Amino acid sequence: MSQTTMKMNQMLMRALTIHIGILVVFLIIPLCVLYSILVFGNEKYNTILEVIMVVFTCHSLFEIPSMLYFIKPYRTFIVGILRDAIQKVGLDKFLKNDQVVMVQHAPSTTVQHALSTINSSQNRR
After folding, report:
1. Which of 96, 102, 106, 112 is most buried by its number of CB atoms within 10 A?
2. d(Cα 74, Cα 67) in Å, to the nearest integer?
3. How far is CA 82 from CA 11, 60, 62, 70, 86, in A?
């Protein structure tokens, strides 16, 4: 087996392991809790049931970004699309690494005046 194939297998195995972990945390465990609540049938667990439904919907919020991050060809494709979009919009001029923009905020004279009057009124007491 070549080195490239070995790296690809390792990358896909890691992505599969993370996929199974997300599946267990966001689907299997809540499903087991849901089943146990349904078996014992108690109405005071309604808030837990609502939380379980929210956790079910969060599955794809974690699954898709993890797939795009841990599988390198997907990641490079998405980064390429984002670079093209940034260049088309014209934001690439502002996102260059060799430019540093420093912004200093000078307090206005009205703020200084307000602070000095507050300080002088506190000193009178």
Report:
1. 112
2. 8
3. 23, 21, 20, 18, 6
| Region class of 104: left (phi > 0), else alpha (psi between -120 and 50), else beta | beta
CA 37 to chain CA centroid, Å, is 31
Using an 8 Å Cβ cutoff, are 69 and 18 in contact?
no
Q: Which amino acid is at 69?
A: Y
| pLDDT 10s digits, 26-68 | 999 999 988 888 888 777 888 888 889 899 888 889 999 999 9
The predicted model scores a pTM of: 0.63
Report the distance separating Cα 31 and Cα 37, nearest Å: 10
